[in-house]
Design a protein that fits this description.
The complex is a heterodimer of chains A (about 290) and B (about 575). Chain A has about 290 residues and is α/β, with parallel strands linked by helices. Chain A has eight helices and eleven strands. In chain A, about 30% of the residues lie in helices and about 20% in strands. Chain A starts with a strand and ends in a 5-residue tail after the last helix. The model of chain A has no long low-confidence stretch (mean pLDDT about 90). Chain B is of the alpha+beta class. The chains are: A alpha/beta (about 290), B alpha+beta (about 575). The interface between A and B is medium-sized, with 14 and 19 residues.
């Protein structure tokens, strides 16, 4: 059975190794100081998509990303790892979107794609950490959602079986297709870039990137249609101007505070013998530092 | 997220050597594959960009998955049961990641599923892999065997086997036997031709790296009644056909993730590769040269990780109120480690480039007749590669052992404990100067290039380069060393005694190596300023080594040779 799979991906600033200039004075992220990367949990989602494709030859993986035109890099990155193609949803009118406007815009794009069996995305993006966009898309499309997925165990007969990683254990659920599945960072790591695909797709460009190319490179892209990435605007996905960008975003940031963690209480454990070490381990497990 | 390619600017320097243009243009046959394959480059810059990007993938996989698994692989090791060898769990993961990344069959032509990379970037990948996990480099590097199949197999064999290697199936080279180690002429594994013309193999092989591989190249005695190398042929055995079991795997000191197998062949079906009787004389020689270059790369990777571990520890460890790297005795250790690393790496890539050039001309000669000029070039490049390969393997492996030793020394008492990577590096390093020919055998292969003047010719060609004014005094020093080398060689040759020449061989080969590497670093420094420090440090080391050897040779009374040769 061949599947039409959509993977939602986001280009995010790399907040994992932040320096002191990572935040601006007003408390917002200084995107210029941080390298733009593929949101880590979206890579976990891509791997689940690739496994579905491995198990169901002939399947197609389309990556959908919303952002600046340079988010085309996310599409290329996904193609190096096995995705078939992608769409950059980009438009000035989409800028400044909160999760409500973002999920609306992406849902409109998904409707435009039309034919899909399953939508996969990361649990959350490391810049906003909301974990809201995936579930909201499912709501707007009127389809089921499975969150905190760790593994797609099976997909057959119009149903998908998913292992979920929850706070106190693992839950396996079955959902009818089509549905949205958001994937945890604890899921299998994404496979690496493939050398041949990397060399094949390295010149893939979106229309706005193409405009900046030399004539030689333009001719090359024209001669090789697989190098053309899709770029869609708000009008193309028939988005209501009132529901996108700033106008569609009811969220207002009142203030941003820098939170410094300080120890409120301290516990002294004697680690001189086995029992002491065991107590320490128990304590660390109890407060979720490990385990 | 460490990336072992992008965090090491020295690699990019070597990849971008001026000679690469010629190599790439020949290898890509004027970029004619671009019409046929969507991943083929359309010009030189495009090809170089491909190498960089793919090496970045190698660096990424190595800096994350493979390096992170290295300690677990070493701890768990390979195992053997039910007649089969089993990799450690993390090794399976490493292989899978390499397969997914399409890093097997890198140097194979595209029509057989490969990436058509020259040897130079392929060897660079080996250098990077070895830094991450030295033992894993063996499994990965055995894709070299595909090169031998490509060179000597028939078209049908190439079509059947090479695409499988490119898809990630592993290989082994089954040469050694209990009574045939360095002396492969004594191989006894029996190849019998049946009435229908097919062959079966019977006998035992020992010390076979990755001996439970999917596809094996096997050296066997096809000519009954013969006793020397001329009765040996090469075969390809496909594990799918059965007939070979793993009796045991060795319990080794290092490279524990790479299973070293004792194999029992019982009527194992196999196919002849190339012509009968050419197995050892021609094919294994070619195979070994490729493998030696691979071990040279593995050695450089070990030197790299040893240097990095030592440097990090020396900066971190504080004694007497300061970081220990502030003490001249430690600083010198680290500087010399880096110089040996840089010297052996420069030699490695110099060698790889000549291997590239002669192999590509050889390959072209199968498609069309070479011009007389090209034929002369092929011969010359082949000779230079033959001269540099044993030097790179011999000295590179000795240097990585020295660096592993010094890495522990920098760590002090902590280095003797199992807590730091240096003890694993030390154990992993030890085999490099033994397998694929011991250092002593590399000297045997190299010595004729001392006596026939190949090394001197190379040195002269390096000396012909103009260097920046601030490097001139360094260059002048090397001219003095060259003179000392020539005099020492002349003194040994004048004695006109084979045993005496053998006795002095290692000294002379090392002198040549010291000078070759010193010049290569000088030229590196001339092209990229950051090499200046290593060029200076290595020149000091080379001067003391060359002087020491020269002194030994000149003050040695040949009649004393008997003292050394006497044994109880």
């Amino acid at each position: 059975m061949s599947l039409n799979i959509i993977v939602l991906a986001k280009q995010v600033p790399d907040t994992r190794n932040v320096g002191k200039d990572a935040m601006k004075a007003d408390g917002t992220i200084n995107r210029a100081a941080l390298p733009a990367i593929f949101n880590p949990e979206d890579l976990n989602a891509l791997e689940q998509a690739l496994r579905l494709k491995d198990a169901n030859p002939g399947s197609t993986i389309t990556v959908l990303t919303m952002g600046l035109p340079k988010a085309a890099e996310v599409i290329r990155e996904a193609m190096y790892r096995g995705a078939d193609g992608g769409i950059v949803l980009t438009d000035r009118a989409l800028g400044g979107a909160d999760t409500l406007a973002t999920s609306y815009s992406l849902a409109q794009a998904v409707k435009k794609i039309g034919n899909y069996d399953i939508i996969l995305g990361g649990r959350q993006a490391i810049d906003g950490d909301t974990a809201q966009v995936g579930p909201q898309i499912a709501e707007k499309l009127g389809i089921p959602q499975v969150t905190y997925a760790e593994e797609i165990v099976d997909l057959a007969d119009g149903k998908v079986t998913v292992k979920r990683r929850l706070e106190h254990g693992i839950e396996t659920v079955v959902a009818p297709l089509p549905c949205v599945v958001t994937v945890n960072g604890s899921a299998a790591e994404c496979r690496p870039r493939n050398a041949k695909r990397l060399m094949k797709y390295k010149y893939a460009v979106s229309p706005s990137e193409m405009a900046a190319l030399s004539d030689d490179r333009k001719a090359m892209v024209e001669a090789r249609p697989y190098l053309k990435l899709n770029e869609w605007g708000a009008d193309f996905v028939e988005a209501d101007p009132q529901q996108i960008g700033f106008p569609g975003s009811p969220t207002k940031v009142k203030s941003v505070e820098n939170v410094v963690f300080v120890a409120k209480e301290a516990l002294h454990l004697d680690g001189a013998d086995e029992a002491g070490i065991e107590n320490l381990i128990k304590e660390l497990i109890t407060n979720h530092t490990i385990g | 997220m460490a990336n072992f390619y992008t965090d090491n600017a020295d690699l990019r320097h070597h990849l971008n050597h001026p000679m690469m243009r010629k190599i790439v243009e020949l290898k890509e046959r004027n970029f004619s594959d671009a019409e046929k394959f969507d991943y083929a480059p359309s010009n030189f810059e495009d090809a170089m960009d491909n190498y960089e990007r793919v090496l970045e993938v190698v660096g990424d996989i190595c800096g994350t998955t493979i390096a992170e698994n290295a300690a677990d692989v070493d701890h768990e090791g390979a195992s053997c049961s039910g007649g089969r060898a089993h990799y450690a769990g993390p090794t399976v993961k490493n292989l899978e990641v390499c397969r997914q990344a399409g890093l097997m069959g890198m140097a194979m032509p595209r029509r057989l599923g490969g990436l058509n990379f020259p040897i130079t970037p392929y060897i660079m990948a080996a250098d990077i892999v070895s830094r991450a996990d030295t033992g894993f480099e063996n499994l990965w590097g055995l894709q070299d065997c595909a090169e031998t199949l490509y060179e000597f197999g028939n078209e049908d064999q190439k079509q059947r086997f090479i695409p499988r290697v490119c898809e990630g199936e592993t290989m082994s080279m089954d040469l050694t036997e209990p009574d045939a180690g360095s002396d492969l002429q004594s191989v006894m594994l029996k190849a019998t031709q049946k009435e229908d013309g097919s062959w079966v193999l019977n006998g035992v092989k020992r010390f076979i790296t990755n001996g439970d591989a999917d596809i094996h190249l096997v050296l066997a005695r096809s000519e009954e009644g013969t006793k020397d190398g001329r009765g040996l042929s090469m075969f390809v055995y496909d594990k799918r056909n059965g007939g070979v079991t793993v009796r045991r795997i060795e319990n080794k000191m290092g490279i524990k993730g790479s299973p070293t197998c004792e194999l029992v062949y019982k009527n194992a079906p196999a196919e002849l590769v190339g012509s009968r009787r050419m197995g050892l004389i021609k094919y294994v020689m070619a195979l070994m040269n490729g493998a030696r270059l691979g071990i040279a790369a593995q050695s450089v990777g070990v030197s790299e990780i040893a240097y990095r571990e030592a440097l990090a520890y020396a900066k971190d460890r504080r004694q007497f109120g300061k970081a220990i790297i502030e003490f001249p005795a430690v600083a010198e250790l680290i500087a010399v480690m880096k110089a040996k690393l840089d010297a052996s790496r420069s030699l490695l890539y110099e060698c790889a480039r000549y291997v590239d050039l002669y192999k590509v001309l050889d390959d072209i000669s199968k498609e069309r007749t070479l011009t007389p000029e090209e034929r002369a070039e092929r011969k010359e490049f082949n000779r230079l590669a033959d001269a540099l390969t044993p030097m790179a393997k011999g000295m590179g492996s000795e240097y990585c052992n020295q660096n592993a030793y010094d890495c522990i020394q920098v760590h002090g008492g902590s280095g003797f404990m199992k807590d730091y990577a240096c003890e694993r590096i030390y154990r992993d390093a030890r085999i490099t100067s033994i397998y694929e020919g011991t250092t002593q055998l590399q000297v045997v292969a190299a010595i004729r290039h001392v006596t026939t003047g190949t090394y001197k010719q190379l040195i002269d060609s390096y000396a012909a380069n103009e260097v920046r004014p601030e490097l001139q005094s360094l260059k002048d020093r090397l001219a003095v060393l060259t003179e000392m080398y020539e005099k020492a060689v002349a003194a040994v040759v004048a004695v006109n005694n084979t045993a005496y020449t053998d006795f002095m061989a290692r000294r002379m080969v090392e002198m040549a190596g010291n000078i070759v590497m010193a010049y290569l670093l000088l030229l590196d420094a001339n092209r990229t300023e950051s090499f200046t420090r290593s060029a200076q440090v290595y020149a000091n080391l080379a001067a003391s080594e060359v002087t020491r050897h020269a002194e030994f040779i000149h003050s040695f009374d040949p009649s004393q040779l008997d003292i050394y040769l006497a044994h109880e």
